[in-house]
Amino acid sequence: MRYIKTELHDFFPVSHIISIFYRGIPKECVCEKCATQNPHWEVLYIDRGNVQLEINREIVCLSAGQGILYAPGSAHRLISSNNEFINIFTVSFDSAKKSEPLLENKIYTFDPFEKNLISKLVIVGNRYFERWSSKPDGIKGMRPKADAPDYVIPFVKSSIEYLLTLLYQKKNNTGEIIHTKHYTTPLINQAIEYMYQNIEKKLTITDIAEHVKMSSSRFRTLFKEATNQSVIDYFNDIKIERAKILIRKNLYSISEIAIKLGYTSESYFSRHFKQKTSMTPSEYGHLVNHDYDAINRNINSNSEN
Predict the structure, then answer these.
(1) Global confidence as pTM
(2) Domain of 218?
(3) How do residues 271-282 score in pLDDT, each as one tens digit?
């Protein structure tokens, strides 16, 4: 029996991890005086807040849910946060590919699947990576902790490569990036807006379809074609993104957030949150709010000194 084999090629091979971390930056500490010109690739993702960046002397604005891929050698720095606290995820890496004009230094709006991939990288980075040195003049970069499982490095490598491939798919033939926030079908945008307005409810496909005056079967098909997600999966992703915002505010208990988002119980909400993010709501809260507390302690310590 004869088999025809298709040879596989690496699209954007990642050879080395330089650093991977999630951090919070208070509004008092956002402005960076000097631009960084690293010889590495870097994905920067804004999980909370709005920022202005300077890239090769040009100003760009990013809001929560957006990110950018810095090319090696590009000069970049944070210059403003609109006077608010921000949460940022960054991962720096080396690749045999030294340039990709259609991808580098462009703003991307991440869809729910890409956000979920970022969340998993955040978990792995927080749990299994540490700095080579804590000294200002020490070795830069990060390394896996001694107790990191053997799958961690392959997971990080494949996840970054997959993310870059997904971002590449967003481009059109002119090289511009296609943002997924709005869709060409007005009824789909109307349905999504209805979901946001009723996020505290347990909407069904029939509820949403009736709002846009379509049959459930037709609406289900059109929504899948436009968003590449089922109606309920999309609505659930909206709930989880809102849950992250409420957790970061640190004003409500987990049970209160569950009620605000229309879940029948805290346990069901926690299971759903972990299914979507690989973290429980408490673990996510510890990650983002612990980071905030640690930064505030450093600020207070520096001001006292």
Answers:
(1) 0.64
(2) 186-288
(3) 999 888 888 898
Q: Which residue, of 137, 169, 201, is where some domain finishes? A: 169
Using the 8-state DSSP alphabet, how is residue 18 labeled? Answer: E
Shared domain for 18 and 164, answered yes or no, is yes
Residue 115 maps to which CATH number?
2.60.120.280
Provide the phi-psi class of 250: left if phi over 0, else alpha when psi is between -120 and 50, else beta.
left
The residue out of 169, 204, 223 marking a domain boundary is 169
Of 189, 196, 269, which is closest to residue 226 (Cα–Cα)?
A: 189
The DSSP code sequence of 218-233 is: HHHHHHHHHHSS-HHH
- Tens of pLDDT, residues 18-67: 999 888 877 666 676 677 788 899 999 998 888 888 888 788 888 888 99
In a domain, 89, yes or no: yes
* Alpha-carbon separation of residue 130 from 84, 133, 142, 267, 296 (angstroms): 28, 9, 5, 32, 21
Counting residues of the chain whose pLDDT is more than 90, the rounded percentage is 31
CATH number at residue 269: 1.10.10.60
How many Å apart are CA 37 and CA 252, to the nearest integer?
40
In a shared domain, residues 156 and 272: no
For 22, the token pair is 């999630």
Neighbours of 291 (CB within 10 A): 17
| 91 in the same domain as 156 | yes
Residue pLDDT, tens place only, 186-205 = 888 889 889 988 999 889 99
Closest CA to 89 of 43, 57, 52, 133: 43
